[in-house]
Amino acid sequence: ILSPFNFTRRNTGSHDVTFKVAYCGVCHSDLHQVRNEWKNSQYPMVPGHEIVGTVLEVGSEVKNFAVGDRVGVGCMVWSCQQCDSCSKDQEQYCEKVVWTYNSIYLDGSPTFGGYSSLMVCDQRFIVKIPENLPFDAAAPLLCAGITVYSPMQYFQMTEPGKSLGVVGLGGLGHMAVKFGKAFGLKVTVISTSPKKEKEAKEYLGADHFLISKDEKQMQDAARSLDYIIDTVAADHPLLPLISLLKVNGKLVLVGMPEKPLSLPPVALTSGRKFVGGSAIGGIKETQEMLDFCGKHNITCMIENIPIDYVNTA
Amino acid sequence: ILSPINFTRRKAGSNDVTFKVEYCGICHSDLHQIRNEWKNSIYPMVPGHEIVGYVTEVGSEVKKFAVGDRVGVGCMVWSCQQCDSCSEGQEQYCEKTVLTYNAINVDGSPTYGGYSSLMVCDQRFVVRIPETLPFDAAAPLLCAGITVYSPMKYLQMSQPGKSLGVVGLGGLGHMAVKLGKAFGLKVTVISTSPRKEKEAREDLGADHFIVSKEPKQMEDAAKSLDYIIDTVSADHPLQPLLNLLKVNGKLVLVGLPENPVSFHPAGVISGQRFVGGSSIGGIKETQEMLDFCAEHNISCLIENIPIDYVNTA
């Protein structure tokens, strides 16, 4: 249960950008952490890492942003900037990364996220929201969007004409379908809920829809997909999904089930397949993704909820 | 228990190469199949798929080989030549591949392998053994060698200066160490047997050796490897091996444990790592590997056993 909480943010430092929070996305991770499911929650906690707003103030060393700009902050607010991961613009794998909330900042203070009225953040972790993207529908791109965009780019799941499977049609899943179509892929949604078929095909443009519990459908689709993005956070068997992959197929986990998964080795060796994983994405590619979305007019399907109703959400 | 069996091979067809078998490697797969561990054994069975010998006859359409040539045949004797896998030179993933033994040939006859005096094979599946490689020490390259060479090339585990971990020091393992050193990698052998350390370092040139059952050694080596080739066919836990990988690390299974392997999704998600598998290799790359081995003077550590003692072997 969340309740109002007063706190102050630091004064705008020379490298900081301060903005008035217009909207903040509600991410499944917020739930996990509010409930201490990952066993590392510090209270009081102010969640929210899909934050968008209008700049109020910039520090003296800030050149890229000005008052009035439409900006956003995602899951990270600081990293070491020196390690391999930081130099490859993959700050989320830096060992010293500071998360937007539930982390400790350089100055020792706990970080507070976007379920608040104001946000202060180092300019290197601020991104610009393109003018043509509506603020509210762009916010979830900062976590859900980048979490699928990053592995799709890294694992090269972007070759036009190839086939992508998306498992699960939640926040991550629907973004994967939209990006998949934008990359020119044939997209198949794999879900346990038949009622999501209409949304998948009509609103998101998916080409095919498979019920994962239907053995015949799954069998008919064997060896038909080049790539699979698995967004499901509930425990689920991986072998039926691996069977859907063609030779050299790749399955990438972006959802975080709680229990270990298991596979017979021959499922991988007999077709040179692999199972990988990915976590959010770097700042540079987040900006790249936003610009891509601006160009292709891609935003998230959202439901606006006033902050007073956040507990029902 | 193997005992002598008399059988005839087909006459050399226009595309066939016939050769007198000089040596044939004993592969762990031979044991698996003799014992029907993979539940698909057809008897009588003549195992052996690391076969080398001198050409005695060539068919009229055979241009690349001549009588007296030193040749070899590995794990396959036919494939469809039309599917994606065949056109990519990865015949082992063809749905119609015919294996060298325990399979059915195009003409309906069962295939018999190299534990015999003579071999007849379609020229497309015959490779040349370079003059500088000793016949007997080259034979295991045809299965053990290519099984590690293929994924090392495909997954680009060959960038000089990077770190490779090899799990298990058997036929596949020792080839992976030799090839790893030849590619300019720093090689760490991970094993359950401390007594293999001497051989790893002195005979094979490994840079480091870790006993996988020693938690401290494994901990000290955390996040130190770019790639891991896992050759172990006994059941073993994968999570401790994943912990040895750096960010973007890759673990490839080439051994076939009987039971499913398991790991936690965080093992691949955090660090954008992956777990893949690979099976033998294509004909073109087998020839490429043989030529590479000749150039770098790489052959297998072997023990010669006369056929009469095959049951003790």
From TrEMBL, chain A:
<feature type="domain" description="Enoyl reductase (ER)">
    <location>
        <begin position="2"/>
        <end position="313"/>
    </location>
</feature>
<comment type="similarity">
    <text>Belongs to the zinc-containing alcohol dehydrogenase family.</text>
</comment>
<keyword id="KW-0479">Metal-binding</keyword>
<dbReference type="GO" id="GO:0009809">
    <property type="term" value="P:lignin biosynthetic process"/>
</dbReference>
<dbReference type="InterPro" id="IPR036291">
    <property type="entry name" value="NAD(P)-bd_dom_sf"/>
</dbReference>
<dbReference type="Pfam" id="PF08240">
    <property type="entry name" value="ADH_N"/>
</dbReference>
<dbReference type="InterPro" id="IPR002328">
    <property type="entry name" value="ADH_Zn_CS"/>
</dbReference>
<dbReference type="InterPro" id="IPR013154">
    <property type="entry name" value="ADH-like_N"/>
</dbReference>
<dbReference type="Pfam" id="PF00107">
    <property type="entry name" value="ADH_zinc_N"/>
</dbReference>
<keyword id="KW-0560">Oxidoreductase</keyword>
<dbReference type="GO" id="GO:0016616">
    <property type="term" value="F:oxidoreductase activity, acting on the CH-OH group of donors, NAD or NADP as acceptor"/>
</dbReference>
<comment type="function">
    <text>Involved in lignin biosynthesis. Catalyzes the final step specific for the production of lignin monomers. Catalyzes the NADPH-dependent reduction of coniferaldehyde, 5-hydroxyconiferaldehyde, sinapaldehyde, 4-coumaraldehyde and caffeyl aldehyde to their respective alcohols.</text>
</comment>
<dbReference type="InterPro" id="IPR047109">
    <property type="entry name" value="CAD-like"/>
</dbReference>
<dbReference type="GO" id="GO:0008270">
    <property type="term" value="F:zinc ion binding"/>
</dbReference>
<keyword id="KW-0862">Zinc</keyword>
<protein>
    <submittedName>
        <fullName>Putative sinapyl alcohol dehydrogenase</fullName>
    </submittedName>
</protein>
<dbReference type="InterPro" id="IPR011032">
    <property type="entry name" value="GroES-like_sf"/>
</dbReference>
<dbReference type="InterPro" id="IPR020843">
    <property type="entry name" value="ER"/>
</dbReference>
<dbReference type="InterPro" id="IPR013149">
    <property type="entry name" value="ADH-like_C"/>
</dbReference>
UniProtKB/TrEMBL annotation, chain B:
<dbReference type="InterPro" id="IPR011032">
    <property type="entry name" value="GroES-like_sf"/>
</dbReference>
<dbReference type="Pfam" id="PF00107">
    <property type="entry name" value="ADH_zinc_N"/>
</dbReference>
<dbReference type="InterPro" id="IPR020843">
    <property type="entry name" value="ER"/>
</dbReference>
<dbReference type="InterPro" id="IPR013149">
    <property type="entry name" value="ADH-like_C"/>
</dbReference>
<dbReference type="GO" id="GO:0009809">
    <property type="term" value="P:lignin biosynthetic process"/>
</dbReference>
<dbReference type="InterPro" id="IPR002328">
    <property type="entry name" value="ADH_Zn_CS"/>
</dbReference>
<dbReference type="InterPro" id="IPR047109">
    <property type="entry name" value="CAD-like"/>
</dbReference>
<comment type="similarity">
    <text>Belongs to the zinc-containing alcohol dehydrogenase family.</text>
</comment>
<keyword id="KW-0560">Oxidoreductase</keyword>
<keyword id="KW-0862">Zinc</keyword>
<dbReference type="InterPro" id="IPR036291">
    <property type="entry name" value="NAD(P)-bd_dom_sf"/>
</dbReference>
<keyword id="KW-0479">Metal-binding</keyword>
<dbReference type="GO" id="GO:0008270">
    <property type="term" value="F:zinc ion binding"/>
</dbReference>
<dbReference type="InterPro" id="IPR013154">
    <property type="entry name" value="ADH-like_N"/>
</dbReference>
<comment type="function">
    <text>Involved in lignin biosynthesis. Catalyzes the final step specific for the production of lignin monomers. Catalyzes the NADPH-dependent reduction of coniferaldehyde, 5-hydroxyconiferaldehyde, sinapaldehyde, 4-coumaraldehyde and caffeyl aldehyde to their respective alcohols.</text>
</comment>
<feature type="domain" description="Enoyl reductase (ER)">
    <location>
        <begin position="2"/>
        <end position="313"/>
    </location>
</feature>
<dbReference type="GO" id="GO:0016616">
    <property type="term" value="F:oxidoreductase activity, acting on the CH-OH group of donors, NAD or NADP as acceptor"/>
</dbReference>
<dbReference type="Pfam" id="PF08240">
    <property type="entry name" value="ADH_N"/>
</dbReference>
<protein>
    <submittedName>
        <fullName>Putative sinapyl alcohol dehydrogenase</fullName>
    </submittedName>
</protein>
